[in-house]
Amino acid sequence: MNLQAAFTLIINTLEPLQGAREAANIAHILMEHLTGMSKMDRIVYKDKLLSPEQEIRLQQSIEALLKHEPIQYVIGKGWFYGLELAVNSHVLIPRPETEELVEWIVNDVKTAVKILDVGTGSGAIPLALKKELPQADVWSVDISAGALEIAAANAAQLNLAVHFEQVDILDNIASQQLPMFDIIVSNPPYIRDSEQADMEEQVVAHEPRIALFVPDHDALLFYREIGLLAKEKLTPGGKLYFEINEAFGKEVVELLQEQGFTNVVLKQDIYGKDRMVRGDKM
């Protein structure tokens, strides 16, 4: 099978499930991963044959995609803030809106700081912050050993120094062992269990539930607990940043105000959705 035939096979297989545009996007990502060739090179050398090994990997990848496995898991990598990150089913796939949270912090930081990221996943947030703020001392915690393994591997691959710890942020004793920080940031689980019915199957079936969902009866669980941690572990004048469920912007703002944070700001993402909150510790 030549390159053109392989590209066409991917599109024809996925188009009924994904639509023409997304099928083409996935086809380009998969073909570049399989061949190491750019889009232009694949056009120029469209008659070049895949090796037998490449054909096997192509078929395996298509089968995974037909089971709604995200393309990032199929190829084992995703991208965030200009960084290529290894990803697997232990970690969420980094989202573009989270890049806006990182950018907000980067724009706010004027001096050397100590930063804590809560819920590292693939390491996307702490690694992007360390890249953009090399003078910062960056720490990151997660409850998942599998996530921490991926995050540490990404840090080593990118040669970025981030201190990773396995901590259950809902365990007060464990989290109190952490040092003081100037900034605490988190993109915690915030999707209510009842929202699953409206989500894409590839997210619900393949991404880690522990990093996605909260019970309907306590949707602000992680904001409340991380807010309490921040009251103890932020230096005076320190800042707390959250990515939030768009449905709870007002509630998260009120929660932080009740906890004693000042200058609480609700920020929208590029799609006009309530997506981020920042508060200052007095």
Describe the structure in your own words.
- The chain is elongated, with a radius of gyration of 21 Å.
- It is of the alpha/beta class and 282 residues long.
- The termini are far apart.
- Helix content is 45%, strand content 20%.
- Strands 5-4-3-6-9-11-10 form a 7-stranded mixed beta sheet, sandwiched between helices. A two-stranded antiparallel sheet has the order 1-2.
- It has 2 domains: 3-66; 91-280, Rossmann fold, CATH 3.40.50.
- Helix 6 (96-108) packs parallel to helix 7.
- It contains 12 helices and 11 strands.
- It has helices at 3-18, 20-35, 39-44, 52-66, 71-75, 96-108, 124-132, 145-158, 172-175, 201-206, 221-233, 249-258; strands at 77-80, 83-86, 114-118, 137-142, 163-166, 181-186, 191-192, 213-214, 234-243, 262-268, 274-280.
- A hairpin with a 2-residue loop joins strand 1 (77-80) and strand 2 (83-86).
Low-confidence stretches: none
CATH class membership of the largest domain: Alpha Beta
- Measured as a percent range, the helix fraction is 40-55%
Widest beta sheet: strand line-up: 5-4-3-6-9-11-10
Kindly report the CATH topology of the largest domain. Answer: Rossmann fold
Estimated share of beta-strand residues: 15-25%
Oligomer class: single chain
Structural class: alpha/beta
| CATH architectural name of the largest domain | 3-Layer(aba) Sandwich
How many separate domains?
Answer: 2
Task: Note the total helix count.
Answer: 12
Helices and strands, in N-to-C order? HHHHHEEHEHEHEHEEHEHEHEE
| Total beta strand runs | 11
For CATH, the homologous superfamily of the largest domain is named as Vaccinia Virus protein VP39
Q: Report the C-alpha radius of gyration, rounded.
A: 21 Å
Shape: elongated
What would the average pLDDT be, to the nearest integer? 92
Task: State the major sheet.
Answer: 7 strands, mixed
